[in-house]
């Protein structure tokens, strides 16, 4: 069990962010308890869970989308959650496609096969 400052150190997330995640219901109650002084005490598994949250945020999930995805109390069906994830995968694939196109264009510039159409 860890206090919030230890979770912050181990995850690289500021304490204010951890509290924000709790308010937004991104951290399930099972990961957080209160001690006799009413301090938050976190389970060890919170570190791995928060790494997953950071990965989803880097995949361009919004806080609201993540809250919907992870909050079991909302009782969203598996199909609804599945559609959310499939949509995000499609968005990532579209971004990857555009990045490959940009990379190809830049590579062609480097080898002198392409010139810009306008003067700089």
The SS-based structural class is: mainly alpha
Major sheet characteristics: 3 strands, antiparallel
> What radius of gyration results from the CA coordinates?
21 Å
Question: Strands of the biggest beta sheet: in what spatial order?
Answer: 1-3-2
- What gap, in angstroms, lies between the N and C termini? 59 Å
Report the helical percentage. Answer: 55-70%
Rounded mean pLDDT is 89
Low-confidence stretches: none
What's the number of helices?
5
The run of helices and strands is EHHEEHHH
Q: State the total count of DSSP E strands.
A: 3
Silhouette: elongated
Quick gist of this model?
The protein is mainly alpha-helical. The chain is 59% helix and 7% strand.
Architecture overview:
- It is a single chain.
- The chain has 120 residues and is mainly alpha-helical.
- 59% of the residues lie in helices and 7% in strands.
- It has five helices and three strands; from the N terminus they run E-H-H-E-E-H-H-H.
- The protein has helices at residues 4-11, 15-23, 46-58, 63-70, 78-110, and strands at residues 2-3, 32-34, 40-42.
- The protein has a three-stranded antiparallel beta sheet with strand order 1-3-2.
- The longest helix has 33 residues, at 78-110.
- It is elongated and about 70 Å long.
- It starts with a strand and ends in a 10-residue tail after the last helix.
How do the helices and strands line up, and which of them pair or pack?
Blueprint (H helix, E strand, L loop, with lengths): L1 E2 H8 L3 H9 L8 E3 L5 E3 L3 H13 L4 H8 L7 H33 L10
Antiparallel strand pairs: 1-3, 2-3
